């Protein structure tokens, strides 16, 4: 199957055709570094890490950029509350973000531009927009005039006239139109600022990504991705200012947006108090378990984070690693990823289908008793898993991990034993045998007795 994506810009699933077959460009909106990142921030990083890996499988060169927003009002507020400098705060949380993603097996970006290192490029782009009649200065602010860009709203499918008609009356008095957005704003002495033709100030959020993408990837890029909460206004505004400044009809040819995370079927929000930081989650769960959960649903759909989904991911990975451990004496052949698994990912990053194929490959390996076939299947499994960023640990190390005997594993095993007992009472012998086999692949030995069923882990 040809590589294809659901393009938010057109609303259609389209075959991917890069501008240059020798060099694919991708931009992912990164974090605003004022605090530790939460699990919702991890999803686009993990999802589009699979995109990054898949593109590298197909093309000789991929330039993958993921920015760091290190100038922002949230950072300023954190600085004022903590008494720490802006640089100290942004540096600390940028490092923490990359550490967290590394634990989730996310490849580092080829380019990690920081907003504060690109102020000069932003000023040039803003001045260009003024010179071309797309922006204006008022009261120390520079704003983009949305009425000068006929295609404004094309990404979010919003009509400009409707947006302006429905806008609040009490908008800032320095705006010509309610929908105009800030490119540059003044800074007081206690806030970070840079000299500019419009006075000492700092950039608006949207101009940062446009300037950094243009410098490092080009005026028109292949793929722009991020969470669907960024479609409007951030990505819509990026398109407007980039196209107008660069005299291009497109900023990015394909737009990919991931869905949200729910926490035990509830929306994740501060008001509900259910926001989980990545590093807190990693204290309880292996990074591959977290990654598996985040990829378990199609990226455009929401994914549910719960005790059940985490336990299921751990159980599945335990089973896969047990199969690999059982053939640890077999040297894997060098292999390309499995064609069916690649086809699943080619179909708009269908990770659930790719996971299903990975599990099928593992089962084939488990059933094989021929050394040559085992070497072939093991190589195929490892190469395929690498595309998904899983099975990256040594099997022995995986089972030596303290989490192997965690409450999650105990809960999973005891639940399966209870299901098996129910199946036996109902004389559902097939289901009973299937559960025993499942426990066996997890490395669990069960012993039936008059006092009930006992279990323990296999000796290594």
Q: What is the number of beta strands?
A: 15
Beginning-to-end CA distance, first to last residue:
42 Å
Q: Which residues sit in consecutive blocks of at least 5 with pLDDT less than 50?
A: none
Output the structural class: alpha/beta
Side-by-side strand order of the widest sheet: 4-3-9-10
> What percent of residues adopt helix (DSSP H or I)?
40-55%
The portion of residues forming beta strands comes to 15-25%
Radius of gyration: 26 Å
Biggest pleated-sheet summary: 4 strands, parallel
| Overall pLDDT confidence | 92
In one word, what is the shape?
A: elongated
Helix run count: 16
Task: Describe it.
This protein has helices at 39-58, 73-82, 86-103, 119-131, 160-165, 205-216, 231-246, 278-284, 287-295, 307-326, 339-346, 351-367, 371-388, 395-400, 407-425, 429-441; strands at residues 4-7, 12-15, 24-28, 62-66, 135-138, 141-144, 181-186, 201-203, 221-227, 252-258, 261-263, 266-267, 303-305, 444-449, 452-457. With 460 residues, it is of the alpha/beta class. It has a four-stranded parallel beta sheet with strand order 4-3-9-10, sandwiched between helices. A four-stranded antiparallel beta sheet has the order 5-6-7-8. The radius of gyration is 26 Å and the shape is elongated. The two termini are 42 Å apart. The model has no long low-confidence stretch (mean pLDDT 92).
